[in-house]
Amino acid sequence: MPVKTRIVKTRRRSFSPEAIALFLELERMSRRNKTFRDKTHELARMLGLVYEWWNGNHVNDRADGPCHPPGYAAFDNFFRVRAVREELLAAAGGSSARRLPPPYTQTGRSSGIPACTERQRVTDRNDTRVRPRGP
Questions:
Q1: Mean pLDDT along residues 95-104
Q2: Looking at the whole model, is its pTM more than 0.85?
Q3: How far apart are CA 134 and CA 11, in angstroms?
Q4: Structural domain spans, the chain
Q5: Where are the beta strands (DSSP E) in the chain?
Q6: Is 130 helix (H, G, I), strand (E, B) or coil?
């Protein structure tokens, strides 16, 4: 007897209104403070992306590519988080094509170092240590 097989369809992720509102709030927020980090962690909990968040990836990251080389867990997580970001933008009625360039990238950088790993020199005249640059 012939059996009708069911074709598996991919299910679109649904987001709570609170998650979309928090995502949009974070898109407008300054990225250089503790409140931003705390809220990105809260959003990661809502979306089930806590592991990826601890690897340094979050849905409000506007980077064009991963800052870790292939072979690292954070490299693979970047693409997983990027897919969720695209779905959130679509759910919020936005488009990734309309997004602004990230504030931490510079065109014509001569160092060739990705923006997330670039180091900056402290400007305090008594302190000449080199510190990592980050959120």
A1: 45
A2: no
A3: 36
A4: 17-96
A5: 119-121, 130-132
A6: strand
